[in-house]
UniProtKB/TrEMBL annotation:
Residues in Cupin type-2 domain copies: 18-79
InterPro entries from the UniProt entry: Cupin_2, RmlC-like_jellyroll, RmlC_Cupin_sf
Database matches in Pfam families: Cupin_2
Name of the protein this chain belongs to: Cupin domain-containing protein
Gene3D superfamilies: Jelly Rolls
Taxonomic lineage of the native organism: Bacteria, Pseudomonadati, Pseudomonadota, Alphaproteobacteria, Sphingomonadales
Domain of life of the source: Bacteria
SUPFAM superfamilies: RmlC-like cupins (SSF51182)
Length: 104
């Protein structure tokens, strides 16, 4: 949706709408900065490394600290969507997949 440099050197913000179809899982990954999640529609289940899964619905929010591995799953029968706002280091990949986590 948008990408903008911040007044802090080397930091940018990125906003994106993420849609997850019913039954689909966004696999384990992390970001080079914080992610602020606002659920727009549906039901989404999030698991952060070392924590129990949480289920969020439209209007709920979640904060994912920098570098923390996490995944998202849509357990519902309708589309799940979030507005993801990333506050990240500029020039680094926005998403770092973690294939080795899939066994967990």
């Amino acid at each position: 949706m948008q990408r903008q440099d911040l007044s802090f050197k080397g930091i940018e913000t990125v906003q994106a709408r993420i849609d997850i179809a019913p039954g689909v899982t966004a696999p384990w990954h992390h970001h080079p900065g914080e992610e602020v999640i606002y659920v727009l529609e549906g039901t989404l289940e999030y698991e952060l490394e070392g924590k129990s899964a949480v289920t969020l619905r439209s209007g709920d929010v979640l904060f994912v600290p920098s570098g923390v591995a996490h995944k998202a799953h849509n357990p519902g029968t309708t589309n799940g969507a979030e507005l993801a706002t990333y506050i990240v280091e500029k020039g680094k990949p926005l998403v770092v997949p973690l294939a080795h986590m899939e066994k967990h």
